[in-house]
Each structure stands twice: as C-alpha cells, then as structure tokens.
Amino acid sequence: MEAPTAPPPFDRYGxxxxxxxxxxxxxxxxxxxxxxxxxxxxxPVARLSALEDRYIDAVATQLVGQETMFVARRARGWIDLNxxxxxxxxxxxxxxxxxxxxxxxxxxxxxxxxxxxxxRAGGADNMWRRKLSDAEVxxxxxxxxxPYHAAxxxxxxxxxxxxxxxxxxxxxxxxxxxxxxxxxxxxxxxHGHSCAGVFTDIAAAIVRDAGLRVAINHPYAGxxxxxxxxxPRAGIHALQLExxxxxxxDERFDQPGDGVAATAGWVRALIDALADAMLxxxxxxAAE
Length: 288
Prior knowledge:
The chain has 288 residues and is α/β, with parallel strands linked by helices. The chain contains eight helices and seven strands. The longest helix is centred in the middle third of the chain and has 30 residues, at 134-163.
C-alpha cells in the first residue's frame, strides 16, 4: 500500500484551467513554524513575525476570483521562497555551502542574514542553535521551495498557452518606509527586465487613483521569484507589488485592521486592469 501523498505547503485558489492571464503569488504569508524548526531556535518563535509579510493573506483571500493564486503556508523563517536555492545559501546557517563559493558570489541579502534560510531575526545575529546539515536544507528545498516554484511555472505556462501572454503578480508587504512622504506602494520589475513598461505603468496608475504614493524599483526591485519566472520576450511577465503594512494592519502592526477591505479593493482593480490590458494586447498585435 502506497503512503499517502503529503499536501502541498501552500494553498491554491482559482479554477483548474486558467481563466485569466494573471497568476498571483503570495510567498511570505506563511505562519506555519514546524516543530523541528522551533526546537532549533535561539529566540521565541513569536519574534520571527518580523520576517513575515504579516497577514498579507488577509488581503489576498479577499481577492480570490478567476485568477490562479498561490498562498504559502510555511513561514519564511523555515525557507524563503523568494531566494535562490543555488545562490542564496548561507554558510553561517548550513553545512552544504562551500565558503569559498559563498565569498565569491554571495548577494547583499545573504550577507545581511536573510538568505534562503534566514539567519538574523528576532533580535538575534543567528537564530539557529546549530548549523543545519546539507540534508536538512535540501529537504526544505524539495518539500517546500521546489513545489511552490513548480506550481507557479505550471500555472504561468497554462495561462500563456491559453491567452498568448501571462503575468505573475508577486504580492508582498513592507514596513513603512522612512522619509517625510514615503511611498506606500512599491512596484518592482527588476529595472525593466521582468515586465513590459506598459504593465508597470498601468499598475502605478491604479495605485495613484487609490490616493496612494507609489515608487518603482526603490527600494524593492524584485527577487528570485521574478528572476526565475519572468520571460517577457516570450510573453511571460512578472511584477512585484509591495504594500505598506500600515495600510491594512492594526496600530500594533500585528493583526488585520480596518484597511484590509480597502487595500483588497485597489489591488483587485489593479489585477483587473492588468488582465484587461493583456487580453487586448494579442488582438492588437494580430490586427497590426
């Protein structure tokens, strides 16, 4: 008798067949901290909430419509779905990394302690009691990271096959930015490499229409998810959306607040505008 297949570490919304060219990813919403992880922490698990896109899933679940949407359940502290398993492993965290290779290619994110397996959180320079073995890290990659990215890739391929174009909207939240009049929303397109400018412009216009301040690529230009899945020349685009947590959380930045519905409303409008533009685009090209 075969062992039962474990459920995926994320929730999938939307019809089995793509009904929209937009695919939504919510990779940092998870609040599932496995017991095996908690036993290795040097800080209370509650302090790791700073790594989360705190309750961004409260916004995302109000958006559920005809798009395919993936919402991660596993916490970012367990493994970061927006980091590369090839380039973002930290030798301070796991034994499977060659320190010489790390010194040559480590990104600023990894050096600052927020790599594939985050190191710095909850006020600790190292939140792990010991280094993780290569096998432990690979188990997280195989069990959580790889299935999420495979699901995204399959959904984008299916959407592209049906509509001739697809766009991945990678939904995140951010702490309030510094400054007198800081941006409340940041759109990231990897400085034009992951998304056609027209889609970024459409998204920015919707944000401004909602009365919010928007920035492009600063300070968040997009991470591994955009780099891994965007192929704009092949008709698969990707755009990162960062939302100030003050727009939808309570005053303590801990629980969903009164702004959830309003935030979901303008994000819904943004998705609809992007979908409408993409559905019109292939017909315009065909007409030309």
